[in-house]
C-alpha cells in the first residue's frame, strides 16, 4: 500500500484543467437563476442524482466525474445521499411512469432554492424511448428543468461544462 | 439432441436458427419443466408473445440449446414457476405484458406493472384492465422483527429499485426486492422497428453492456438471415466486448472496495476504468462504444488511433494492476469485510443457472464464450476462472482473474488484426419466404445475455426479447444477504452489480 500511496504523491496529478463553461448552458440558465440564491450559495453546490429510468449509461459518466481526471469536488460540487441535503437534482432517463411519483417526491423533498438539471438525450423528451406506453417522455413534463445537458450519454467533459455554467450563474458571475 | 428426445413435440420451426425451436402441447411442456426440475436442463430464458410462450433451455451435459414453445389457445399456459422457482419473475412479467395466465401459479402478483402505465397487458390482445392493488410483500413473522424499506431512490449514483428488509436487530431475516421502476417498454418499441432502430434500442437495454447487447442483437439477426459478419468485424466486436468487460470489472472492483471504505482502491481502479473508456473513444469514437456494432458487421472501422491506444492501455494495466491485486490481497481490514460475506450456495447458482462472476464464484463453470464458442472466441485461447467459496471475496477474485484473461484476449485480437478486409456483410433487402427467427447468447461482463427475435419479410422486427443475466442473479442476492448484517448489504449488492434497466426493460 505504501508504494501505491508514495507513487501517487510523487507522480504528477492526473487531474485535467477545467473546461470552459458551456455557452448554450449559460444562455439557458441566465433566465432562471434567482439573484437571491446567488448570494446565499456562492460557489458550492450539493448534487443529488436521480435515475428516472435511464439505461444506466448516464450514471456511468456521472460517476466518472469523481475520478482523478475530472475531480468534480475541486469546483465545490459534490454528490450527496439525500435530496434533503441537495441544491441540485441531476435527473437522467425518459422518466418511466413507474418512476414518476418517486421523482416528484424527491423534488418536493429538496429544499429551496433548488435547480433541476436534466441529463442525457432521453431526459429531454424521452429520446429513443419516446412514445412508449411506459415513459412520460421528458423530465420537464414532471418537474421544472433549469438546464439540459444533452448527449447519449454526455461525456464527463460535457457534464462538467454544464455544471460549471450552473455554478457561474449561481455564484453571481452570470 | 438428447434434450429434445425427452420432450414430446409436434415438430420444429424450420426458420429458427441456429438452435431448434419445437412446438409442444401440455405433455411436452410438462416434460420440459421436468427437465428443469431434475437439473438436466437450465432455464436460459422465458418470454411471451400475444398467444404463445417460449422457454429457452440449455442442456447441462452437452451445452446444447433449444427453444420450447407452448401455444396459449385459451390465453393461458401451465405455470412453470410453481415447479421451478427461477422462472417466477419472468412468468409474472409475461402476465404483466401479455395478459397470458399461468394456470396453477402460486405467486400471481404483478412484477413490472406498478399500475402506472394507464393500461394493462400493453403487448397483449386481452381487453379490460387489471385491478390496481397495493403491492403485498411476503410476510415475515417472529419476535423482534422490524422492516426497513429502501428505495426506489437510493443514496448513491445508482439505478432505482425497492428493497424491503426484515431484520432482527442488525441481522437480515429476509430481503425482498421489488423492481420494474426503470421499465421503459423496450420490447414494445422494438415491435415493427427497423433493424437500425432496434439495434440502437438493444444497445440501451443496459448502458454498461452496450457492446454485449449490440453484439447479441446483431448475432441473432445474422442467425435469422443465415449470414455472417466479415472476419475483421468479428474480431473488432470481440475487442470491444473485452474492453467493455475490463472497464466494468475495474469499476466494480473499486466500487466493492469503496463500499468497505477502502477508497484507495476505488481511486486507482477509477483511473484504469477511465483509461479504458478513453481508449474506446479513441478507437471507436464513443466512450461506451454504443451503436458501433450493427447487424451484418460494424458501422465503422477502428480509427488509426485504435491500435496504439489499445496497446498503451494494455501496457498501463500490466504495469499498475498487479500492484492493485497485491494491495487487495494484503489488506487484512478489507478482507475482513469481503471474506465469508454474502455467500451464495452452489446449489442455487446451478438451479438458477446464474451466469457471470455470481455463478463462477460459486462453482458454476459456465461462460458463453467457451460453451457456445461463438466467433471469434473458438479461435482464441483463454481460461474461465471458477471458485467455490461464493462470497464477496470470491466474486472479486473472479473479476481480477477475468481482467487478466481479457488483457490476454485483447492482445491476441490485436495480433490477428492484420488484414484490413470488409466490415459489413450486405443484408438482403427482403426475405422471400416470410418470417425468420434467430437467437444468440453472448457473454457480457456480468453474465450471459440472450436475444431472441423474429423478423418479418421486410426485415422489420416482429418480436424481440432481450434477457439480461441479472434475471437469474437478483433472486440469489436475496439469499446471499440472509443472516448478514444490513450494513453489509451495499457490499453484497455491489459484488453482484445486477442491472436494473437490463432486467426491467
Task: Provide structural commentary.
The complex is a heterodimer of chains A (174) and B (505). By secondary structure, chain A is α/β, with parallel strands linked by helices. Chain A is built from seven helices and five strands. In chain A, strand 3 (88-92), helix 5 and strand 4 (115-119) form a beta-alpha-beta unit. In chain A, helix 2 runs parallel beside helix 7. Chain A is globular, with a radius of gyration of 17 Å. The relative contact order of chain A is 0.22. The mean pLDDT of chain A is 88. In chain B, 40% of the residues lie in helices and 17% in strands. The longest helix of chain B is centred in the middle third of the chain and has 29 residues, at 231-259. Chain B is globular and about 65 Å long. Chains A and B meet through helix 1, strand 1, helix 4 and helix 5 of A and helix 4, helix 8 and helix 9 of B.
Structural class of chain B: alpha+beta
> Tell me about the biggest sheet of chain B?
5 strands, mixed
Give the DSSP E fraction of chain A (strand runs of 2 or more residues): 5-15%
Unreliable spans of chain A are none
Low-confidence stretches of chain B: none
| DSSP E strands of chain A, number | 5
Shape of chain B: globular
Share of helical residues of chain B: 25-40%
Order of helices and strands of chain A: HHHEHEEHEHEH
Work out the helix count of chain A.
7
The CA-CA distance between the termini of chain A, in Å, is 45 Å
What is the 3D form of chain A?
A: globular
The N- to C-terminal Cα distance of chain B equals 32 Å
Question: What's the architecture of the largest domain in chain B in CATH terms?
Answer: Orthogonal Bundle
CATH class of the largest domain in chain B: Mainly Alpha
Figure out the total of helices of chain B: 17
For this structure, the quaternary state is heterodimer
**What name does the CATH topology of the largest domain in chain B carry?**
Cytochrome-c3 Hydrogenase, chain B
CATH superfamily of the largest domain in chain B: Cytochrome-c3 Hydrogenase, chain B
Backbone CA Rg of chain B: 22 Å
Structural class of chain A: alpha/beta
Amino acid at each position: 500500500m505504501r508504494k501505491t500511496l508514495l507513487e501517487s504523491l510523487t507522480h504528477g496529478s492526473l487531474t485535467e484543467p477545467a473546461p470552459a463553461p458551456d455557452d448554450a448552458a449559460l444562455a439557458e440558465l441566465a433566465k432562471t437563476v434567482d439573484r437571491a440564491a446567488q448570494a446565499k450559495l456562492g460557489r458550492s453546490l450539493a448534487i443529488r442524482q436521480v435515475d428516472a429510468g435511464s439505461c444506466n449509461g448516464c450514471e456511468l459518466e456521472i460517476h466518472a466525474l469523481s475520478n482523478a481526471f475530472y475531480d468534480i469536488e475541486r469546483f465545490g460540487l459534490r454528490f450527496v445521499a439525500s435530496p434533503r441535503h441537495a441544491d441540485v437534482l441531476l435527473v437522467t432517463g425518459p422518466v418511466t411512469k413507474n418512476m414518476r411519483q418517486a421523482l416528484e417526491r424527491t423534488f418536493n423533498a429538496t429544499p429551496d432554492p433548488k435547480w433541476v438539471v436534466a441529463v442525457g438525450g432521453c431526459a429531454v423528451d424521452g429520446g429513443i424511448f419516446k412514445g412508449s406506453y411506459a415513459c412520460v417522455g421528458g423530465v420537464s413534463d414532471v418537474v421544472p428543468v433549469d438546464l439540459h445537458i444533452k448527449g447519449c450519454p454526455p461525456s464527463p467533459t460535457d457534464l462538467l461544462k454544464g455544471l460549471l455554467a450552473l455554478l457561474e450563474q449561481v455564484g453571481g458571475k452570470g | 439432441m438428447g434434450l429434445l428426445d425427452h420432450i414430446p413435440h409436434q415438430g420444429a420451426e424450420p426458420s429458427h436458427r441456429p438452435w431448434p425451436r419445437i412446438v409442444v402441447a401440455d405433455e411436452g411442456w410438462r416434460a420440459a419443466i421436468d427437465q428443469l426440475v431434475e437439473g438436466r436442463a437450465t432455464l436460459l430464458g422465458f418470454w411471451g408473445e400475444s398467444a404463445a410462450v417460449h422457454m429457452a433451455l440449455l442442456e447441462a451435459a452437452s451445452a446444447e440449446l433449444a427453444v420450447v414453445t407452448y401455444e396459449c389457445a385459451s390465453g393461458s399456459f401451465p405455470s412453470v414457476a410453481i415447479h421451478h422457482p427461477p422462472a417466477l419473475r419472468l412468468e409474472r412479467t409475461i402476465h404483466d405484458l401479455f395478459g397470458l395466465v399461468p394456470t396453477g401459479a402460486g405467486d400471481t402478483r404483478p412484477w413490472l406493472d406498478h399500475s402506472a402505465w394507464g393500461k394493462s397487458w400493453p403487448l397483449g390482445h386481452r381487453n379490460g384492465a387489471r385491478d390496481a392493488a397495493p403491492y403485498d410483500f411476503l410476510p415475515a413473522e417472529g419476535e423482534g422483527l422490524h422492516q426497513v424499506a429502501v428505495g426506489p431512490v437510493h443514496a448513491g449514483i445508482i439505478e432505482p429499485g425497492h428493497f424491503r428488509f426484515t431484520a432482527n436487530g442488525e441481522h437480515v431475516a429476509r430481503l425482498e426486492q421489488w423492481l420494474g421502476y426503470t421499465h421503459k417498454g423496450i420490447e414494445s418499441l422494438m415491435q415493427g422497428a427497423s433493424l437500425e432502430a432496434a439495434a440502437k434500442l438493444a444497445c440501451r437495454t443496459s448502458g454498461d453492456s452496450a457492446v454485449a447487447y449490440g453484439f447479441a442483437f446483431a448475432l441473432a439477426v445474422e442467425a435469422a438471415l443465415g449470414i455472417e459478419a466479415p472476419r475483421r468485424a468479428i474480431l473488432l466486436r470481440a475487442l470491444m466486448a473485452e474492453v467493455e468487460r475490463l472497464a466494468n470489472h475495474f469499476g466494480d472492483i473499486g466500487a466493492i472496495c469503496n463500499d468497505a471504505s477502502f477508497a484507495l482502491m476505488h481511486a486507482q481502479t477509477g483511473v484504469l476504468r477511465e483509461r479504458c473508456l478513453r481508449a474506446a473513444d479513441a478507437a471507436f469514437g464513443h466512450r461506451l462504444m454504443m451503436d458501433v456494432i450493427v447487424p451484418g458487421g460494424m458501422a465503422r472501422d477502428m480509427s488509426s488511433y485504435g491500435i496504439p491506444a489499445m496497446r498503451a492501455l494494455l501496457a498501463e494495466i500490466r504495469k499498475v494492476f498487479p500492484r492493485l491485486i497485491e494491495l487487495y490481497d494484503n489488506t487484512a481490514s478489507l478482507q475482513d469485510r469481503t471474506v465469508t460475506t454474502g455467500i451464495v450456495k452452489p446449489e442455487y447458482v446451478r438451479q438458477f443457472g446464474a451466469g457471470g462472476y455470481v455463478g463462477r464464484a460459486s462453482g458454476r463453470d459456465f461462460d458463453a464464450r467457451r460453451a457456445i464458442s461463438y466467433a471469434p472466441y473458438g479461435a482464441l485461447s483463454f481460461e474461465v476462472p471458477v471458485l467455490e467459496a461464493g462470497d464477496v471475496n470470491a466474486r472479486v477474485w473472479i473479476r481480477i482473474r477475468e481482467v487478466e484473461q481479457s488483457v490476454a484476449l485483447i492482445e491476441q485480437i490485436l495480433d490477428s488484426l492484420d488484414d484490413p478486409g470488409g466490415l459489413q456483410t450486405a443484408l438482403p433487402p427482403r426475405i422471400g419466404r416470410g418470417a425468420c427467427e434467430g437467437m444468440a447468447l453472448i457473454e457480457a461482463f456480468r453474465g450471459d445475455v440472450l436475444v431472441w427475435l423474429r423478423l418479418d419479410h421486410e426485415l422489420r422486427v416482429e418480436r424481440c426479447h432481450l434477457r439480461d443475466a441479472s434475471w437469474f442473479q437478483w433472486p440469489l442476492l436475496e439469499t446471499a444477504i440472509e443472516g448478514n448484517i444490513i450494513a453489509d448489504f451495499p457490499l453484497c449488492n455491489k459484488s453482484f452489480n445486477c442491472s436494473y434497466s437490463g432486467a426491467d426493460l
